[in-house]
Amino acid sequence: RPLSVVTLCGSLRAGSYNAAIQRALPELAPEGMSFSVLEGLGDIPLYDADLQAKGFPAAVTAMGEAIRAADGIVIVTPEYNYSIPGVLKNGIDWLSRLPDTPFAGKPMAIQSASMSVLGGVRAQYHLRQVAVFLDALVLNKPEVMVASAQQRVQDGKLTDEGTREVIRKQLAAFAGFIEKVAR
Ligand code: FNR
């Protein structure tokens, strides 16, 4: 059976470098791994337990179902102020409150891109900490941190061959990881 992977981008902007990387994933994946993009992160209201008591927003329910049905999730995110963007944290906070939380036992791979020389490493390690509470199964290596992203993405396309190669390696490792831990 082929592996189905959902991808979530922590940036909402149209010209996002992280979204460019997310778009490149299908062409860098091993054979038998298919992708679908989780849409609607920006449509999720700010978390409020009173709102939750009235029922989960449709965007949360739909995203939760898509994650639950997938064999794994790849999160591609920028770093904001040395952490993950609030919009991503907000989405994760909502998803974590769903009954039968979709992240528990779910293989997860993390990628980040930033305009700085560290490529979002601090955001990645904050996301790893969040994933502990989610009980997600996070792939350790190889890590994908795309530094100076503005030099590696041209016209919305990930063109840098070195970056493409490390992503190929991570996705191949992710396929093996999913087989090992979750199938
Ligand atoms: C940033 N940026 C940034 N970069 C970084 O490497 N470390 C950081 O802590 C921050 N902090 C930060 C905060 C806020 C509020 C913004 C808007 C930006 C810069 C960031 O890397 C750059 O904007 C990227 O282009 C964002 O990713 P996308 O939108 O291109 O995917």
From TrEMBL:
All copies of domain NADPH-dependent FMN reductase-like, residue ranges: 4-150
Matching SUPFAM superfamilies: Flavoproteins
InterPro entries recorded: Flavoprotein-like_sf, FMN_Rdtase-like_dom, NAD(P)H-dep_reductase
Cellular component GO terms held in the UniProt record: cytosol
Gene3D superfamilies recorded: 3.40.50.360
Domain of life: Bacteria
One family name in Pfam for this protein: FMN_red
A single GO molecular function term of this UniProt record: oxidoreductase activity
Protein name in UniProt: NADPH-dependent FMN reductase-like domain-containing protein
Organism: Teichococcus rhizosphaerae
